[in-house]
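User: tokens in, sequence out, please.
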């Protein structure tokens, strides 16, 4: 299996056209992998972090049983909880797992990234829809904004 980070790093700093290509890839290749009642074709003005992780997973060859394909972070978490792959414990989290954030403090998580490294209490992630591009984020593991992780 190709590491999601290796794929994601190829998209660092993409422009608007790059974002549109990711969305088109999702609509053509990942849309059909989503539970039928949840299928939604992503549009240019939508948040696209979950779309980005789904596209990276598809390009890495992950099956629908291995990855929670979705454009909604909350739905990705819901699927992972049902499968027993969601955890709030970073202890066994590894490179390539998903990191889940909640920036607005509501009940529904609102952002997802791919874990690049965890080192000395700091997690570095690669995220789509980070400042309108793909970028890195460094955050303390004990940050109140981190909801948990999805093990892949």
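Assistant: Sequence out:
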């Amino acid at each position: 299996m190709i590491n999601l980070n290796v794929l994601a790093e190829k998209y660092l700093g993409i422009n608007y056209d790059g974002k549109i290509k990711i969305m088109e890839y999702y609509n053509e290749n990942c849309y059909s992998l989503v539970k039928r009642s949840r299928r939604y074709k992503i549009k240019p003005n939508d948040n696209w972090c979950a779309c980005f992780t789904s596209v990276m997973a598809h390009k890495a060859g992950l099956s629908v049983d291995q990855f929670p394909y979705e454009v909604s972070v909350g739905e990705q978490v819901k699927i992972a909880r049902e499968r027993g792959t969601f955890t709030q414990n970073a202890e066994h989290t590894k490179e390539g797992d998903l990191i889940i954030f909640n920036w607005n403090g509501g009940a529904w998580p609102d952002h997802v990234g791919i874990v690049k490294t965890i080192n000395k209490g700091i997690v570095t992630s690669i995220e789509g829809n980070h400042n309108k591009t793909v970028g890195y984020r460094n955050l303390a593991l004990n940050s109140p904004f981190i909801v948990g992780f999805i093990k892949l």
